[in-house]
Every structure is written in C-alpha cells, then in structure tokens.
Fold these 2 entries.
Entry 1:
Amino acid sequence: MSWWMWVVLWTVLVLISGAVLAILLFRLWRQFSRMLHDLGDYGDSVTQRLDQATAEPAVTDHHPRRPDVYTPWREARKQYRSGTLERRTARSQRRSARRRAMGQPQKVSDLTR
C-alpha cells in the first residue's frame, strides 16, 4: 500500500469515530436536558403541594379521637386477635371457593372454618 492510502484510511477512521462520538454526546445531552426538565416539573409539584399544605387548614372534626397509644393492652390484643381471625376466615373462604370453582378436592381444615 502506498502512503496516501494510509492517510485516507486514518482520515476515514478518525471521521467515523468523531461521528460516533458526536452521536453519543448528542444522546447524552438530550437525556440530561430531559432529566432537568423532569426535575423542574417535580420541583413545581413539590412547591404546589407545600403551598396547599401550608394554606389555611380546613375545618376539622371537633371530636378528638382517642389515641391508640393509650388503649389498654388487653383490648389491643383482643382487637388484634379478632382481626387475625377475620383475615384467616376470609382467606379460607376464598381458598374454598377457588377450589370449588376449579373442581379440586377440599381440605378438611378449610371446611371447618
């Protein structure tokens, strides 16, 4: 190969790598500008929510709720256990209905609940 062929080859390689680099930088710039735009929108929404939160409070219920912190532990345990039993029963009923719909045999424990 003659010397001018090497010059042409290297020139083409440099131009192609420059074009690829330019395309990558352009894509990076577009992503960065899109991110800044989204960040600005997020800042606007935060400002709007903050303004709504610090505005005049709405008329609230004048019957204060008894805080759950002072619920006696026996009552809290009773509420917890009754809620657990309700969830278990509902789950068992859903399981039985699903098995009935699919024609599968039922478990005895599902039928007793």
Entry 2:
Amino acid sequence: MSATKLRDLLRRRGLIALILACLLVGIGGYLLWGHYGAPTRIALVNFPGYMSSGIIRSNGSRHVSFAELEQTELDKLDDYDCVLTFGMGLKWTAEDRAKIAEQGKHGAKHLVLFATTDENNINTLGSKEGKRISEYFGSGNKANYRSLARYIRRYVDAKRWFAPEPDSVAPSATDVYYHVDESVAFAKLSDYEAYLKQQGYYHPGAKKVMLVGGLNDPFGGNKQNLDSIIMSLTRSGLNVYPVTSFSQRLRFLKEVSPDLLIHFPHGRISMTGGDEVVAYLKERNIPVLAPLTLMAGREEWESDPQGMMGSFLSQTIGMPELDGAVYPYVLSTEERDKDGLVVLRAIPERLARFTTLVHKFLTLQQKANSEKRLAIYYFKGPGQETLAAQGLEVIPSLYRFLRHLQSVGYDLTGLPETEEAFAQQLMREGPVIQKVSGGMMADYLQHGHPAWVKRSELDRWMQTDLSAQQLTELKEKYGPAPGSFMTQQRSGDTELAVTRIQYGKVVLLPQPMAGLGEDSFAIIHGAGAPPPYPYVASYLWARHAFAADALLHFGTHGSLEFTPRKQVALSSSDWGEALVAPLPHFYYYTIGNVGESMMAKRRSYASVVSY
C-alpha cells in the first residue's frame, strides 16, 4: 500500500472515529438531558378550571409544564411524568381503575387528591411524596403551588438540573380579612379598617357588608370575581369586610357586626357551629344573600334549561336555604383568559344589579316605615271569584295584615275602616280579567281606576329589564306591545291598564293571568309560554312607576314561580328573575307545601314567611 493510500485510510478512519465520538457524546448528552434536565410534564386531571388555572399561573419554572385533562382521557396519561387527579366528582369505572393500576406497574406516577371513595384513593408515587403534595394542596396558595411544581420536578420526576429545592409548606392565610391586594391579610379588625382608610376604601358611617365563603381561595391566584365584587360594593358607598375563615365565622360576625352578610355558598353558612351562627343572624336580623358562582361558562349556563343539578345543587342552594340564605342569584361564571386559562369572573351587568339589590335590602333597614313603598300581590280567579290561597282566609288575613302595617307606621292612607268595605273594594277595583269578551274588561277600564301605562313607557321598561330573547317571544306570541288585551286608546295612543288599589305607599295588585285560555289551574301551574303584556306590565309598573322598595306575594300560591325556563340558577331571560330582580321579594306561604315553596325561593328569589 502506498503512503498516499495509507494516509487517506487513516484520514477516513479518523473521520469515522470523530463521527462515532460525536454520536456517543450526543447520545450520552441526550440521555443525560432526559435523565437530569428535560422538562417535567404534569397532568392535572378533573381539576376545577379555576383551581388548575391558579396552579398553572403560580408556576415559576420554564422547565415544568402543566396540562389540563378530562377524567376520561386515561390513554393520554402515559405522556406525563406525573399525574395529579382531583378526586371529587370522579366517575371512574372498575375498568378505568384497572387501566390506571396497569400504568402504575410500568412506572406511571399518579396521585388522586381529595378522593371521596376508597377505590379512588390512588397513590403510585410513594407515601412520603403523596403526603408532601397533599400538604401543598391542603394549604393551597400561590407560594405552595410554586413549591409544588419544584417538588414534583426534583423528587417525583427526579430531575436535578434546573430543579431548585422547593420551599416547605407555607401556611395559607386563614381567619383573616382580605382585599383586592393579594398581600393583604389582617387578623385584627382595627388593622384592616386602618388599611381601608389609608387606601381610600372606607366610608365613615356607611353600612357594613361582610363576605364569607367562596369556591376559590382568595390567596390561590384566581380571585378576579371576588375582587370585582369587593370593588363594586365599595364604589357604591359601602364598607366591605371580606373574610376567609372556616371555623371562626361567628367570631368575625360578632366582631364586624355587619348590616348584611353575603355568603358565597358551598355548604352551610358555617360548617362549624352552624346553628350558633344562624341564631346570631336571626337575633340581629341580618339578611344573608347567597349569590352563585358556577363551574360553567356563561353560554353553557344560559342555554341549560335546568340551571344546576346534583350534589352541586344541594351544596350550593339546598344547604344555604336551610340556614335562611336567600336570593341564589348567579353572579360569577367561568371564562377563558387570553392565555386560555379558566378564570372566575363576575358578569358585569349582573354585578351591577346585585349591588343594587344589596342597597335595596339595606334600605329596608334604615328607611322609616312611613316612607317604605310596598307592592303586595294577591291571587284570585277571574271575574267575581274571591281571593284564594291554600289554607288561608285571604280577605280577612290580608285586611288584618294591612291594619298591622298601619299600626307600625306604614302609610296606608285610604284603607277602608271595615273589612266588609275592603272586600267590596277588592272585588270592584281589583279583579282578574281573563278574556276580552263579556263586557267585564270594558266596564273595568271605564270605572275601575287602573293605573295607565303609555306604550312608550312600557317599551322603555321592557328594553331595560327584559332580554332580547324575551322581547322576541312576546312579540311573536302577542304582537307588538302593548298588545290588545287590557288596552284602550287614550290621548291618541294605546295605553295598557294595570289593575291596582293603592293605599298611600302600599299598593295591592291582583296577579294577572300568566297565559291566555280558560283553564286557570293549568295556566297558573305553567302555561308554557311567555306571560302576556298585562302580566309583564304589572310587575314593571310596580318597580318603575310605583317605585316599590319590596314585593310581597300574599298566600299560596301564584304563577310567577311557574313561568317558563330554568328551574334554578336563573338567567336574565328567565321570567322569574326579569320580573322581580333586583327587588327584595317576600312570599307569605303555607308551611304545608314545602315542595312548591322551594320553587318560590329558587324561581322567584322569594324569602318565604310561613303560615
């Protein structure tokens, strides 16, 4: 072999050796990177959107990533270095659990947190790791969620590069007053009020509203809904006291002595010493409003004919009802932000109405009885049928009630001196008219002293208080407003008559028929159609023209709670909400009809007073 060929051979062998060395270094580097430095991928399965968003937002590492998965996406779990599953609401089958167990045999690292059954209490990480992760979640706040990501990378995924030591579990602030600034956490009322004054949030002499409860922790990194509620109430002139506490709510109530309590419900007002808390609220006559936070997007909720169901219904509406909380008014829903993460946000127009509602409840506390304006609805059949209510002699009971109101200072100027004269006036000036024919409507419009509502006035009220869907339904069913029933040409325009009898600042109104037809029973219990214009106009007149401070339905029962659409968690397109909110609503209801009284509470926001 010539010297030249030998040099070429050696050169080629050197090049091959270099290539092999580079390959070995590359493979080694790849293996080292995979073992020590590759990103840690964590799956969050079945977590509420607001909770997973708080975890993801708190992550401060570029080398840890989170992904949200549904509980049905078990085939994707192998793609992750660690799987964390939220145990509440799991619907795994035995087959699903067997698949998870098989994945565990092949090294999958899976931990179920907050499991509600033994079979779902799964931990393939090890007891030490499972305990530490559970502790981070047990005190869920931004610091602990940040440490959670570090801990999983370093001790579960066993990465050593870009893996700083996690902090120990940081106690979550509890039994404190909080505010929109996440760094605010005051154990003492005096310190909190000093902060309010310093920041310009305090209103000397103003009413005090206390906030308790909530699905989202105010220190968990996802509290936009709470912030907007706090600021809306504050800007309206109220002093707001948001409290996070599980076991000390009674102490905070006594300390603050609020004029009104807002409970963001998921269970009782207080899960410890609940009866004592209720007794204190009753003793001090503190109203409790229970606005709802939904685990659904706005469109999903608005299109849902039920509104809410299952265990979430019992915890969010049923349990608070037992404690006396009222007005289960949807205030916050889930929404995706610009990063695609779920945030809880108060719906702006609903928050504005809720703020008005809070002030109306507070007005009832501070306004003199002589100045309060009360609209009372009673129920009767059409024509000359008498007033009706289950288990109640209505005319004597209503008259005595009005006399009692008069005795405690309400303005009932013109109330007849005798029950007999009162009954005659009710039948003469407060009828329910079911049809145009027969001459009764014409006679009443001529001699019955109704309140007249101009077409333009009714249009303005409906545009303000009804949804576009409701306006369309009314027009399709009954023609352009105000329709042809209970109307008359006056001063060159069509006006609609609202049947009412007014005594000073208290007005009595017969609830109009909620539909057209001859079957009164079927109409009252759900006509399956939008209520006619006279029905709508009656409630809007009470709110806008009469300027009622509150509504009262007298006796069991009317038709408002049987109008179409949602069963609970009403939207602005539900008639029970559109015709009542944002007024305090009271319902004098028989204690012998619990089932339908629940409908009155949930479908017309009624505070039920039993007889």
